[in-house]
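Limitations

Structures in this collection are predictions, not experimental determinations, and the ligand pose is part of the prediction. Treat each record accordingly. The example that follows, with flavin mononucleotide as the small molecule, is included so readers can see exactly what is and is not provided: the inputs are given verbatim, and the output is the predicted complex.
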Amino acid sequence: MNKKVITLIGVLVLLVVIGGVIYFTTRDNTQSNENPNQENNNQVTNDNEENNNEEEGEDNNTTSTGNRVLILYFSMSGNTETVAEFIHEEVGGDLVKLETEKTYSSDYNDLLDEAQEEQRNNARPALKTTINLDNYDVIFLGYPNWWGDMPMPIYTLLDEYDFSGKIIAPFVTSGGSGFSNTLSEIRNAEPNANVTEGLSISGSSASSSRNRVNTWVEELGF
Ligand SMILES: Cc1cc2nc3c(=O)[nH]c(=O)nc-3n(C[C@H](O)[C@H](O)[C@H](O)COP(=O)(O)O)c2cc1C
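Predicted complex:
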């Protein structure tokens, strides 16, 4: 009888120990998965205590990573806009279309000439859009490839605003040229910004780029 009781207690103790081991092992794994990006230095991290988004929804441009995000894009025929919207849906933050004072031609051939002329003149088309960069830590910056370069309004933007200390995550849509030399152009114009790896999408596949967008923003730490 006593033996049976002792055996029973022994079994119970064993069960409790096994249960405890399983509980703590599972808990540790869950915790280490909470921020899988912590060890990757190329990623966007939240090192600004003030930006911790403890009260969710209080600040619309603050994302789940605690970064204040602006998705700023220039787009004429909508491809870059589509990609910008995918980023916005995935990351959150503020979505702003960069608009110019002037209206670009809606005729494609005329637009080609107009854009080429602006490049030749190293023009700085005036911006209608104003932004307050103080409100942001991370700026997703999107544009179409125009003649192997950025549309000149992006140069106006980089001239007029100081992105020092900000993270710039560039994305481009194109007919196949990708970024051309534009990542270097951004780095040259904003030497004190941290320019991340960019995302290049072909214009014709912009509408089916959601998965690539999601992978990219995940790699950036969002
Ligand atoms: C003025 C102009 C110049 C362009 N130059 C290039 C080019 O050099 N290389 C390229 O791959 N695509 C070029 N394209 C195609 C655009 O980059 C592509 O269609 C882009 O997705 C358009 O973006 P959007 O719809 O956001 O305006 C050009 C388009 C325009 C209107």
